[in-house]
Amino acid sequence: MKWTKMLAVAAMAMTLSVSGQTTSAPATAAAGDQGWTPLFNGKDFTGFYTVFKTAKKGPDTDGYFKVETVDGEPAVHVMGFPVLETKRDFGYFVTEKEYGDFDLKFQYKWGEKKHPPRAKAKRDAGCIYFVNGEDQVWPDGVECQVQEGDTGDLWVVGKTISVNATIKDEPANSKGEFTYSSTGKSVTVSKRQQYKDATGAMKDVDGRIVQQQTADALTGWNTVEVIAKGNTSVHIVNGRIVNRLTDMQFIDGGKPLDHGKILFQAEGSEVYYRDMEIRPLGENETVPGTQAEYDARWQVNDRARPRPGRMEPVAETELAASAKAPVNAVVLFDGKDLSNFLDSHWKLIPEENAVEITPNPKKAAAANAGAAPVKKEAAPLTSTLSPEELAAKGNLVTKEAFGSCKVHLEFACPNPPKGKDQAQANSGVYLMGKYEMQVLDNTNNPTYADGLAGAVYGENPPLWESSRPSGEWNYYDIEFHRPIFGADGKVERPATVTAWLNGIKVQDNFALTGPTEHQIRLPYVAHADKLPLMLQGHGQVAKFRNIWVVPISD
User: Fold this and answer.
1) Does domain 14-159+224-244+257-297 have CATH number 2.60.120.560?
2) Structure confidence at residue 383 (pLDDT)
3) How far apart are CA 45 and CA 9, in angstroms?
4) pTM of structure
5) What would the CATH number be for the domain defined by 316-369+378-551?
6) Which of 371, 451, 481, 529 has the most CB atoms less than 10 A away?
């Protein structure tokens, strides 16, 4: 797990506060290959100690935390022992050192067991950073919550600390809790505050700021990142900013809270932690304030970029009605013929009312004839080619041109899967022949996040990974608004896309930075208001059916 976006810190040293001392990192450290240090060595708990509610600081004699191989990698297995009717203890493993000005990341996934006293509650765990005070359950600090549907929540732990956060412009909930909003008003939160409950009684605030959006999956691995600089921090779940805190401080005296130990909780639920790593922040690095600032850290097709969580698809029976072409739709393909497309030699499959990608026949004939290899030159960018040139390269290109529109289609990938990574049933839906919504077989496919099905290729990963298994039909619904250009050719309004994959929203009014290409980011170049739609022939097999378009206003 690496960041490959080089930071502008080549001329300065990077430092990480550790136990009151300063440890220097290489002057050329990047947010990628360099600077990361494992907190967990994958073998044992060197660098940590354990604390329990009843036994306090001491050895883990009951096996709350065990190092095991999980999904082929070393992980910490938490509370994997049998469920009893009696209550299990709460506890944690915590670093011996203190840390400040850091980028911390780890992955977790849930097990099946839930132990009393939380046997009927949500599965719960957490990571508390800036830990100060006594070794107890729980020590004062700031918690990045790990809980089903709530990962990334802030909890102020203890009554010595206060934090500031911006919140949604709405009343607190019945527990006096607010919800984070990047554009909201600022509030101070501490456990010394009180609120009036529904009965009028005054109650202590529990110190929680709810994340602004749910980004954690209930199955599979989730990636959590905490970036802290000074007394400001941000919580990031599966690549999405969900909470941001400022002005963390000790209430008495106002001293900034900007360093401390880091702990991982055992709070009644079976959970696995792995890939616990930390790196120092460079002098010029800041805590991202917006999702766009965080996303700018990643290169196109960056394999270190966090993948989205998994959201199970909506059942096909529930999608059937919306998949039918409305009366105002332009039906491009209903299974009968390809008369609405330029000739591309794709194969009709009448029994499935589908069409299948086939290799470019000219290229295949040359290969079969044993033609001498031709010196390979740099391929022209897809976004620069004419519709006829795109069709000649084996893509399926419409005869009719479209601007802003809604697109529906269904695609299926071979079962068993063929190829791997970006060669596993790779295709794409190119709006105006320039702006790609990715098609891929995501099944057991460890590819880069902005190359998954549901991604705006090379620009924005899907909000959720919601594809169906290999061989099953996926339902794609895309609402696209074309870019608007001024008389001088400059873009006045970027293209935006909202999309659903199998009924799950995977893009939410995302503004494209320009045409999409492999490993490069291009600026906008003025073009016509309407251009053909294209389905990509990428050299792998995939099938499409039920393709229709509804033009919409800009």
Assistant:
1) yes
2) 84
3) 33
4) 0.87
5) 2.60.120.560
6) 451
